[in-house]
Structure formats: structure tokens, C-alpha cells
Specification:
Blueprint: H1 7-27, E1 32-42, E2 46-47, E3 50-51, E4 53-56, E5 66-74, H2 83-91, E6 96-99, H3 100-103, H4 110-136, E7 144-147, H5 158-169, E8 183-186, E9 189-190, E10 196-197, H6 202-211, E11 216-220, H7 224-229, E12 236-240, H8 243-255
Parallel strand pairs: 5-8, 8-11, 11-12
Antiparallel strand pairs: 1-5, 1-6, 2-3, 4-7, 9-10
Helix pairs in contact: 4-5
Length: about 260
């Protein structure tokens, strides 16, 4: 037997499942990570007391200025992210909400993900060395490059590693520094052939760069729009697509000769 509900009672009954769904949404973990600007490190200097770039088999230069690789810090792959953190991240320019799969490879536990990121970093370092020596025409000369950077994983420091090796060995090619004495930061993967690839979290990395004194930021060409979206005041964006393009842009900045690309 069915009975007809009055409108107020009907609304009250209908509200019960909605309230239950909202309560569940508030308390349930969501497949997101919350990221913020991370550390930066000068690849021309030392990290935790150890030189980032060590070269044997060839003389190196004493460099001025800095080439800073940039990172983001994200909540762990096993962190429970609630809807309040997601909403807060959308309105906070110092944080970003990203799909967890965009930050971490799926299907692995925390230790497996750490090992994956370590492999990505090693492959990036190897590619940076190959690209830099190839650019300089010095591959096959018996030059050995060791790259050390503690507590950082992933491939996005490739460009800055390669530029650091070039600066250590050859500078700007005319006796000066690639940086022109500036604090230059950047991000981007790199291939053995010197092609620069896109990475994630660029708006957060520009904030980290400016926080740590950078005035120039090298960004993969494909990510100019992302970098412009929340660009800190006083930071100049220079889009790059290859290692050669990055070197040419830095030379042009220092000498005032040639074109400096802009986003």
C-alpha cells in the first residue's frame, strides 16, 4: 500500500540521500595530488655538500652565475586527499591540484614508484651527458661526467643538466659564462639528440625559480601558455626546443646580439 507524501515531507525524504552523498564525498579519498613549488638546485654548484657535476678527462671552467633546476613537491602517492584540499588548491596560486596519475605512475606501491623515478632521473642524466658532449663535438673523447642530485627523481632536469655540462666545459664558447652571471632557472626533459620535451607543474616551478632568485626561466616551447598563466613578476620566460636553441638564447641575452625567443 502506497501513501502520498506532502511536499515538505517529500523534500525532506529526498534530501536524505543527497546529504548522504555529500557526506561521503567530503570524507572519501580522491585520486588527486596537491602540489606546491619545490626545491631548486644550482647544477653548477653543490647539493648537500657534493658537486652536482663532476667531469674527468677534460679541464673544466670556473663558472659565474647559476643554472637552477626546478621541482614541485606533491603529496605522496598513498596520501588521502579530501574534497576540502581539492577545493582549496583550486583557489590557491601557491598550490595546484593534479590527477594522481599525472604525478605518479599508476599500478605500483610507494617503493616501486620511487624506483621508477630514480630510473627516470638516471636516464635523464645519461641523455643530458650524451646531448651536451654531442653538441660540443666532444663525444668519444674519453670525457667522463658524473651527475649527483640527492632526493630528486624524474626526468625534468635534463635540460639544465645538459646546460651545466656545456657551461663547465665550454661556457659561451668565447671565454664567458652561459649565464652571463645571472641566476637562470628552467625545466625540460632532453633526448640524446638534444631535443627538449615538456614536463608538468610549470607554473609552480616558475614560482620556485623566482623565490630562489632567478630572473630568467627556460621553458619548453609547448608549455609557454602554462608558464605565462601565473608568471611571477621579474621573471623572464625564454621558450626553447633544443639544447642548441637554449645555448643560443643565453648567449643572445648576454651579448645583446641575436634574437632571444619570448612566449
Amino acid at each position: 500500500m502506497l501513501s502520498r507524501l506532502t511536499r515538505p515531507r517529500a523534500l525532506a525524504v529526498c534530501a536524505l540521500p543527497v546529504a548522504a552523498l555529500l557526506a561521503t564525498a567530503v570524507s572519501a579519498p580522491l585520486p588527486f595530488s596537491v602540489a606546491r613549488p619545490g626545491l631548486t638546485a644550482d647544477v653548477l654548484g653543490a647539493n648537500q655538500g657534493t658537486p652536482v657535476i663532476t667531469v674527468s678527462g677534460a679541464p673544466t671552467r670556473t663558472t659565474e652565475g647559476q643554472l637552477r633546476m626546478t621541482t614541485i613537491e606533491a603529496t605522496g602517492p598513498d596520501a588521502d586527499i579530501r574534497i576540502g584540499e581539492v577545493i582549496g588548491g583550486w583557489f590557491d596560486t601557491d598550490r595546484a591540484v593534479m590527477p594522481r596519475d599525472a604525478v605518479y605512475p599508476s599500478g605500483g606501491d610507494v617503493r616501486e614508484i620511487e624506483r621508477y623515478n630514480e630510473r627516470q632521473m638516471k636516464q635523464s642524466q645519461d641523455a643530458a651527458t650524451t646531448a651536451a658532449l654531442g653538441y660540443l663535438g666532444r663525444d668519444g673523447e674519453g670525457i667522463d661526467v658524473t651527475l649527483r642530485l640527492a632526493d630528486v627523481g624524474g626526468p625534468s632536469a635534463g635540460l639544465m643538466f645538459a646546460l651545466g655540462i656545456v657551461d663547465k666545459l665550454d661556457g659561451d664558447g668565447s671565454g664567458g659564462d652561459l649565464t652571463g652571471g645571472r641566476v637562470v632557472a628552467g625545466t625540460g626533459t632532453i633526448t640524446d639528440g638534444g631535443v627538449v620535451g615538456a614536463v608538468g607543474g610549470v607554473p609552480l616551478k616558475t614560482q620556485a625559480a623566482r623565490r630562489d632568485g632567478a630572473t630568467v626561466f627556460l621553458v619548453p616551447k609547448a608549455e609557454c601558455a602554462d608558464a605565462r598563466a601565473e608568471l611571477p613578476k621579474g621573471l623572464r620566460l625564454v621558450p626553447v626546443g633544443t639544447l642548441k636553441g637554449a645555448v643560443d638564447a643565453l648567449r643572445a641575452l648576454t651579448t645583446g646580439k641575436g634574437e632571444v625567443p619570448a612566449c
